[in-house]
Amino acid sequence: MSKVFSRPVRRGVLGGTVAAAVVMGLLLWWMLPLGEEPPSGSITFSTGTTSGVYYEYGSQLRDALARDMPDLNVNLTASNGSPENVERVATGEADFTIAAADAVQTYEAQHPDGAARLRGVARLYDDYVQLVVARDSSVRSIADLRGRTVATGLPRSGVRLIAERVLKAAGLDPAKDIKAESEGIDTGPEKLKRGEIDAFFWSGGVPTAGLEKLADTFTFRFVPISSDLVARMHDQDGSTGYYRATNMPESAYPTVQNGSTVATIAVSNLLITRTDTAPRLTEWLTRTVIRSRDGIGAHVHSAQLVDLRTAIYTDPLKLHEGARRYYRSVKP
Predict the structure, then answer these.
(1) What DSSP string describes 107-130?
(2) I need a surface site. Which of 222, 238, 305, 314 has the fewest CB within 10 A?
(3) How far is CA 259 from CA 193, 206, 207, 256, in A?
(4) Residues ≥6 apart with Cβ < 8 Å to 317
């Protein structure tokens, strides 16, 4: 009897294998342009500080690009943050980068000719402004920072840009009313832990590895940033529209927040490039960004928020032609 049934069983296994192969083929047909060879060559991707979300996202995206475009060499470079990233792409020092929308808008206002060469690829996720103090600190509001030693971020960083605007909105002069220190997420946590600074600003996706690491060895809390400061920030330097009042979710840093949200400010992050970047390369890269959301999101929580429906909104930049081609190809 076993011989009678052995052939149908093998046929069933074979049929299942063929079916799986057909399904996989259809998936590959949907994911990749039919008949196209993956782009090759070399690109430079500017990220951020090594303890920040930009750097980790860039590292994970490079791995995803290696799978989709194995002959494309992706060179990652660290940076101080958004303003430096925008300048690098505009001047040709880098080909792609991540930058907060307020930094892009600021560069446009200061360097209109260079900004004209910039184009958007995708809206990614939001940065949250995070003002960190020791748990027993008497600082309860931005105004309480007067006379304190405060890390406001590295020069040419998005943290510095937004921290100074927050301080001004609260009626503080960053040059006179606080003792400003140029520390970023790489060094700020340890300086706070040692009592060398009273507070530090950070603006990034949540959770950020540098703060998760600090939470393991030091008790700290977040100072809320009230919504009334947002309207005042919109009146500064023509930055209208890129800041919004929100709450940092309670799940961002569970051991620190103890189930509570934190009032703060958010600004969207954009993946950007230049007008002279090859459309086919940009189309393939855009596809990888969208397809790899869950894979990258397993390592970079913020990446889980990348969404095909909102990715096209790269204001203040126009979409690059290659990105536009991809979004049109998947439009329902």
Answers:
(1) HHHH-HHHHTTEEEEEEEEEEEEE
(2) 238
(3) 23, 15, 15, 9
(4) 104, 118, 119, 120, 270, 272
Hey, what are 241's tokens?
Answer: 């529209």
- Do the beta carbons of residue 311 and residue 327 sit within 8 Å? yes
- All residues at 6 or more sequence positions from 243 whose CB lies less than 8 Å from its CB, including other chains: 102, 162, 230, 233, 234, 265, 266, 267
Q: Report the SS3 class of residue 138.
A: coil
**Cα(213)–Cα(210) distance, integer angstroms:** 5
160-189 pLDDT, tens digit each: 999 999 999 999 999 999 999 999 999 999
- Cis status of the peptide bond prior to 316, with omega within 30 of 0: yes
Q: What is the pTM of this model?
A: 0.86
Residue found by looking up tokens 């960190």 in the block = 132
Centre a 10 Å sphere on the Cβ of residue 295 and count the other Cβ atoms it contains: 15
Residues whose CB is less than 8 angstroms from the CB of residue 103 and which lie 6 or more positions away in sequence, other chains included: 81, 82, 83, 85, 86, 158, 161
